[in-house]
Each structure stands twice: as structure tokens, then as C-alpha cells.
Amino acid sequence: MKAIVSVFAKDSKGIIAYITALLAEKEINVLDISQTLLQEYFAMIMLVDLTDCGLSFTELSSFLGQKGRERGLDVHIQRQDIFDAMHKV
């Protein structure tokens, strides 16, 4: 299964490293990544592969949300199929 991970926060050093380390810890592969700075705000969207992740989607969502809050980041994950369905015209 693939998913979309989004991260938003005030810019600070190490955000990409922090998030990708969390994903690697859970055996999640980053397939594509886009990030930008909007003045002092950081935004990142990643397409990830959850095939080897041992957590349920709900557990993973809670894990990423909690770890994000610990660092002052707004982190969300959404299944790719649901994301695609929401954005079809």
C-alpha cells in the first residue's frame, strides 16, 4: 500500500532528516518527495510505500502524529487510494 505523508511547520534545521528517520525506523520507503519554504514556513509532501511496515495504518498515523507534535511539526498520513479518490473530478 502507498500513502501520502504531509508535514507542515515553522522552518527549522533537520525536519527532513527527522521525518525520514522515523519512516526508516518503521521500514517505510520514500518513493517521491517534494518540499518547499514559504517565507518562514516549511511544507513537505511524500509518497511512501508501506509494504514492509509492521504497524497498522491507525498505529502509524498515531505514531507519526505524536512524534511530529514532540518536534512542533504537523504530520499527517493518508492512504493514496483515498487521496486519489478525493481529488478526481
Spatial order of strands in the largest sheet: 2-3-1-4
Number of strand segments: 4
Level-2 CATH architecture: 2-Layer Sandwich
End-to-end separation in angstroms reads 23 Å
Search tags:
Alpha-Beta Plaits; 38% strand; 89 residues; globular; 4-stranded antiparallel sheet; 3 helices
What this model shows, in words?
The protein is α+β, with helices and mostly antiparallel strands and 89 residues long. Strands 2-3-1-4 form a 4-stranded antiparallel sheet. Helices cover 37% and strands 38% of the residues. The chain is built from 3 helices and 4 strands. The protein has helices at 15-25, 57-71, 80-86; strands at 2-10, 29-38, 41-49, 74-79. It has a single domain, classed as Alpha-Beta Plaits, CATH 3.30.70.260.
Summary, kept brief:
By secondary structure, the protein is of the alpha+beta class. Helix content is 37%, strand content 38%.
Write the layout of secondary structure elements.
Blueprint (H helix, E strand, L loop, with lengths): L1 E9 L4 H11 L3 E10 L2 E9 L7 H15 L2 E6 H7 L3
